[in-house]
Amino acid sequence: MARVYVSIGSNIDREANVASCLVALRGAFGAIDCSPVYECPAVGFSGDDFYNLVVGFDTELAVREVATRLREIEFAHGRRRDLPKFSARTLDLDLLLYDALVQHGDGIDVPRDEITRYAFVLRPLADLAGERRHPELGLSFAELWARFAVPDAGLRRVEPSAPT
């Protein structure tokens, strides 16, 4: 059984898309643990603020099958891949960690480099799995967050009306 962590982001109808995504993730993978939800400005383009959070779950599926199911959930929520990388989106699901697997290439990128680059990924991951260690760096996610260069980075914890 692998422990998986996934980053969720949305800035189009974000409350509804995040809530629907959590239902879809539970349907695909079973029980999930959720970090708090953070609101933060769009990065790399001008646009509405995002809701971001991280979920964790256990699965017996192979890493490629998890990635495929995440893409299916994105597409079911109207995600378009024909737009620029930095643009508004209904739903963005990124596979951050698959146990301690380190794989870069062949369509799989774990651990994601966004973990250490963006506060909106690292902060909720540290909230949810602070004691776990980054498989390449050996530091816990709580330690990585404590060392993060821009601690708040415009993040604001929110309580969406939809349950997580």
Automatic annotation (TrEMBL):
Keywords, ordered alphabetically: ATP-binding, Folate biosynthesis, Kinase, Nucleotide-binding, Transferase
Known EC number: 2.7.6.3
Top-rank lineage group of the source organism: Bacteria
Gene3D superfamilies: 7,8-Dihydro-6-hydroxymethylpterin-pyrophosphokinase HPPK
MF terms in GO: 2-amino-4-hydroxy-6-hydroxymethyldihydropteridine diphosphokinase activity; ATP binding; kinase activity
Involved pathway(s): Cofactor biosynthesis; tetrahydrofolate biosynthesis; 2-amino-4-hydroxy-6-hydroxymethyl-7,8-dihydropteridine diphosphate from 7,8-dihydroneopterin triphosphate: step 4/4
Domain 7,8-dihydro-6-hydroxymethylpterin-pyrophosphokinase: 5-129
InterPro entries in the record: Hppk, Hppk_sf
GO biological process: folic acid biosynthetic process; tetrahydrofolate biosynthetic process
Enzyme class: transferase
NCBIfam families xrefs: folK (TIGR01498)
Record's protein name: 2-amino-4-hydroxy-6-hydroxymethyldihydropteridine diphosphokinase
Organism from which the protein derives: Plasticicumulans lactativorans
